[in-house]
Amino acid sequence: MSIEYKTRTQVVAEVIRQKILSGEIKGGAPLRQAALAEELNVSRIPIREALLQLEAEGLVEFEAHKGATATRLSADQVCELFELRAMLETDLLRRAIPLLTAQDLADAESLRQQMSSAYQQQDSSGSWSVLNTQFHLTLYRAAGRPLSFELVQQLLTTADRYIRVHLMLAGGVQKADPEHSELLKYCREGKVDAACALLQQHILGAAEEVKNIVASLQQAG
To answer: Any idea where the domains of the chain sit in the sequence?
Structure first.
């Protein structure tokens, strides 16, 4: 198969991404650059660049002495991760809302607008996911619960690859943007119960969609 311009890196990334998400390339399988370059009739440079892009999307991992491998995705891990997120993040938000400053809310709104712009970029899932994490943490920081805050940071880091899968395959941005806007509205108005209910729905709704995607990939494998 010969590849023409999109750029080459973009097309290579699309081909490998589809192979991973379709289950053709199984989780944990090595991604050998020489073999991929031969299969796609390109040099190793766009292969390497594509693998780095897919690493940013959470679909590829680079391990010492092993090189690149396809990420293993787990439906059970999705459930536990997102349920923990929902418990801790709603608690932090409940405590933070009465303490949020005008600057906190302005920072969160700026991040929300940047997320909308980031989706148009080439590495949209990577940029959007980073901004999404910053958006959520901006709303929680005022709670003054450093241990819970640190745990949420760790959970968001672990959940990142699933958040990116949700963005790519389940229309995550289109759903998240209006929910983020509504969440900020409730925060500004001091509607603690409504904000926490929406946040829980936001997290667990995404979890259900990601879990279904991962389960279908596992069945295909």
So the answer is: 8-70, 75-220
CA dihedral 175, 196, 92, 85 (to 10 degrees): -50
Rama region for 208: left / alpha / beta (φ>0; ψ in -120 to 50; rest): alpha
- What tens digit of pLDDT does each residue of 190-203 get? 999 999 999 999 99
Strand partners, 67: 63
Length of the chain (residues): 221
Phi, psi torsion values for 7, nearest 5 degrees: -100, 175
Query: 18-64 pLDDT, tens per residue?
Result: 788 767 888 889 999 999 999 999 999 999 999 998 887 778 999 88
State the CATH architecture for 8-70: Orthogonal Bundle (1.10)
Where does the chain have alpha helices with state H? 8-21, 33-40, 44-56, 75-96, 102-118, 124-140, 146-169, 172-189, 192-220
Question: ∠117-177-216 over CA atoms, to 5°?
Answer: 105
Q: Output the six-digit token pair for 89.
A: 């993040």
**Structure tokens that stand for 81 in this block:** 């991760």
Q: What is the pTM of this model?
A: 0.76
Amino acid found at 202:
H
> For residues 125 and 10, what is the distance between their CA atoms, to the nearest angstrom?
14
